[in-house]
Design brief:
The complex is a heterodimer of chains A (253) and B (216).
Chain A (H helix, E strand, L loop, with lengths): L4 E12 L2 E12 L3 E5 L6 H7 L10 E9 L2 E2 L7 H7 E4 L10 H11 L5 H14 L3 H4 L12 H13 L5 E5 L7 H14 L4 E5 L3 H7 L2 E6 L2 E7 H6 L4 H7 L5
Parallel strand pairs in A: 3-8, 3-9, 6-7, 7-8
Antiparallel strand pairs in A: 1-2, 1-4, 4-5, 9-10
Helix pairs in contact in A: 3-4, 3-6, 4-6, 6-7
Chain B lengths: L1 H35 L2 H8 L2 H22 L3 H31 L14 H21 L8 H25 L4 H33 L7
The chains are: A alpha/beta (253), B mainly alpha (216).
Chain lengths: 253, 216
């Protein structure tokens, strides 16, 4: 079931001042697969996720060594266009964060920034993105209403649509369902399953059942280290490391 | 929450062990009753059939609740699934005990064989296998079940031997047909119980190691 890697890290280390938050992480993320990162709070899973589109650059005290390759190119190489990188590697956050604009404008924002001016072209992108985010049927009649009037689950799918609008290769999701109710969560999980046909998804979640349900591969992190990485069913049925076993059976964490 | 779950899982495992032991005793006592023509003992076994049914339902319900409430994973998940299968196998073994006990009365007036049969030896083999299953399930040490394949072969050979012997008796003396037929069924039940012991051993192996094996 392994497919070619789209992102890989080699001996990746990250420090927040003196805190060694990621320690020698080497991981290979398969294309068109869903990869889940699990682990207790503070283990570094969100930090690792934010490395993939260089969001950690925005934090002053961060220092990174090692290599991160996207499509076999080092994302820290001189001359890397970070805006283009973040177009290729989109991100959805824990709390839905739509812009205080209309539903339409939220989705059209990214393509506009990247130079799409033609109205009919934008219309097509907006409709397609909302379709792909399984939101179109719910908002087709209220495209000009404020996005802030949508429910939490709809707002989160709008944020996914906004990410899809710039045609990323990879979608990073940092606890995308933790602020949502079970029904909205189920919709996002179903969506993740369809998204992998066209995109690569990396999801950070505290909810282990969710990781087990949605992902093809799972990485367990603890104290900044990637303790175990493998196919999801293997990790949840028969983990090889005692730490993984103890965490997923609730003996700590 | 985790501590509560693990305490409940531990208790479930202990009670399942008790159930397997109870079923094993039913089988043991039924064979004893059959060989000694002990009707009182047979009645004792028959009186246990409701209990094994009730325990089966209670333990299964507890298992379903643990799955529904805690969605166990990894080793916990394997313990739960193994436990469920142990409950099913134990119920079957208990019911074979009941079925054998039911034969004691109709066989009472039937002429007995002139020579001893390997039934008690066969029962001994099967009961030892069940005992070792209990040890492995309780201690999670697989040593006791490591040679189940050859032990099952021995039981199978005994079953075929009883079958052939009974056929011979029936051909030689039609008056033995009733008893012979019943004994073939007893041997068959014992052979099935041996198979259940093997299945339980396979499940225990999966529970402990996460790897599947096949005991042939």
């Amino acid at each position: 079931m392994t497919s070619e890697p789209i992102i890989s890290t080699h001996n990746l280390n990250l420090w927040y001042n003196d805190t060694h938050a990621l320690q020698s992480i080497s991981i290979s993320i398969s294309k068109n697969q869903v990869t889940a990162l699990i682990g207790p709070s503070g283990c570094g899973k969100s930090t690792l996720l934010r490395c993939f589109n260089r969001l950690n650059d925005l934090i002053d005290c961060v220092r990174i060594t090692g290599e991160i390759l996207l499509d076999n190119e080092n994302i820290h190489a001189a001359g890397t266009d970070v805006v283009m990188l973040r177009k290729k590697v989109g991100m959805v956050f824990q709390k839905p964060n739509p812009f205080p604009k209309s539903v339409y404008e939220n989705v059209a924002y990214g393509p506009r920034v990247h130079g799409v001016k033609n109205k009919s072209e934008l219309d097509t992108i907006v409709e397609q993105s909302l379709h792909d985010a399984a939101l179109w049927d719910e908002v087709r009649d209220r495209l000009n209403d404020s996005a802030l009037g949508l429910s939490g689950g709809q707002q989160q799918r709008l944020c996914i649509a906004r990410t899809l609008a710039v045609e990323p290769e990879v979608i990073l999701m940092d606890e995308p369902c933790s602020a949502l109710d079970p029904i909205a969560t189920a919709k996002i999980e179903k969506l993740i399953d369809t998204l992998k046909m066209d995109y690569t998804v990396i999801i950070v979640t505290h909810n282990m059942q969710q990781a087990a349900r949605v992902s093809d591969y799972t990485g367990f992190m603890y104290l900044g280290k990637l303790v175990e990485f493998g196919q999801t069913n293997q990790i949840f049925e028969n983990p090889q490391e005692d730490l993984t076993e103890n965490y997923i059976t609730g003996r700590f964490g | 929450m985790s501590e509560k779950f693990h305490n409940e899982l531990k208790a479930l495992k202990q009670d399942t062990t008790e159930m397997v032991r109870f079923a094993r005793d039913m089988l043991n006592e039924s064979v004893y009753a059959l060989i000694r023509q002990d009707s009182a003992k047979a009645l004792q076994v028959l009186s246990k059939k409701n209990h094994i049914r009730e325990v089966t339902i209670t333990l299964e319900d507890r298992t379903y609740q643990l799955i529904a409430l805690y969605q166990p994973m990894a080793k916990d998940m394997r313990v739960i699934t193994c436990t469920l299968k142990m409950i099913t196998a134990a119920e079957r073994i208990g019911r074979y005990g009941k079925d054998i006990a039911e034969m004691v009365k109709p066989l009472h007036d039937q002429p007995d064989f002139e020579q001893p049969l390997p039934i008690s030896l066969m029962a001994e083999q099967v009961l030892e296998m069940i005992d070792d299953v209990i040890v492995a399930f309780e201690t999670e040490n697989l040593e006791a079940i490591k040679d189940f394949s050859s032990r099952d072969d021995t039981v199978d050979a005994m079953w075929h031997s009883v079958f052939r012997e009974m056929l011979t008796f029936m051909m030689e003396n039609p008056k033995t047909i009733t008893r012979s037929t019943y004994y073939i069924m007893v041997a068959r039940y014992l052979e099935r119980s041996g198979d259940h012991a093997c299945k339980m051993a396979e499940n225990i192996h999966y529970m402990v190691t996460g790897e599947r094996i096949e005991i042939k």
